Amino acid sequence: MSDQQPGPARESESEAFLHRAEAEAEKDPFAGVDFSELELSLYRPRTLFSIILSWMVTGMTVLALIPLFAVLWMLIWRGGRNFSLALFTQLPPAPLEQGGGFGNAIVGTVIMVGIASLITVPLGILSGVYLAQAPGESRLASAVRFSAKVLTGFPSILAGVFAYGAVVLITGGYSATAGGVALSILMLPTIILTSENAIAMVPARMKEASIGLGATGAQTVWMVLLPTAMPGILTGIMLAVARAAGETAPLLFTALFSNYWITSGGHFNLMQPTASLAVLIYNFSGMPFKNQVELAWAAALVLVVLVLIVNLIGQSFSRQQVQQ
Fold first, then answer.
1. What is the pTM of this model?
2. Residue 25 needs a FRET pair 20 to 30 A away by CA distance; which of 41, 152, 259, 290 works?
3. Which domains does the chain have, with CATH numbers?
4. Cβ(268)–Cβ(230) below 8 Å
5. Could you report the per-residue pLDDT of 181-229, keeping only the tens digit for each?
6. C-alpha distance from residue 173 to each of 73, 177, 181 (Å)
């Protein structure tokens, strides 16, 4: 009988010790913590190494921001001093002519980006839905995903060459339509990949609940997945639009340039050469005439502001996706 006593006795002692430790922890939760070990000291190698790396990262960040702020300051200084309402309502001036603007270039940029969006937004969202819902072993989904990733690094000038051969040569002339096709090639991969990621982030329980209530696959996608993932999808669309608005090379092969409005007889004529902000900056910045060079600086400022606004809108949609 005496050999069986130590076991229960040791258990009761350990329980009593745990109770005492819990009681002490409730009185002082920091009991047993050596605060001297937590203090930062330059004599500690790890602390010194951490501080040095932190200062190095901060310094590198500041150095990386200097060119960005230098460019912004130059744009504001050179382009802002000629800023006026006439820039948005008048046509580009002739050499040595005073006044003028780039209203036709703004309209042309908006129209060509709009054409590209009409092509890529439906196709990109549908492709993203397919990639997000396709089985993991689907070869077609893997091929589409791989192609979209390759297109993200596709040189923009090659998109212009493709649109030149596919649209300009067939239609017989440069046009806003050809420019929109070229820009759509550059926008498509961004919309596909962001749409896929946004839809994949929708909790699986929402899809399961929809199917459990008797909804079909199409109804689940249309009424559950797309509304929930819409902030992320809109973020990708805004990023793609911002990239397309600043492209120059594809438009040199497709839309070329024009000193006139895109309207003809009160209607938009999409099958004629069309002005754009990016090409106007490219053309006028190399001119020997001061008035056109100053106009190029103002156009660059307007283009940067437009791209910044579009990016801020995309960031706001991204924050909504994170909050959900």
1. 0.79
2. 41
3. 2-39 (no CATH), 82-323 (1.10.3720.10)
4. no
5. 999 999 999 999 999 999 988 888 888 888 888 888 888 888 888 988 9
6. 39, 10, 14
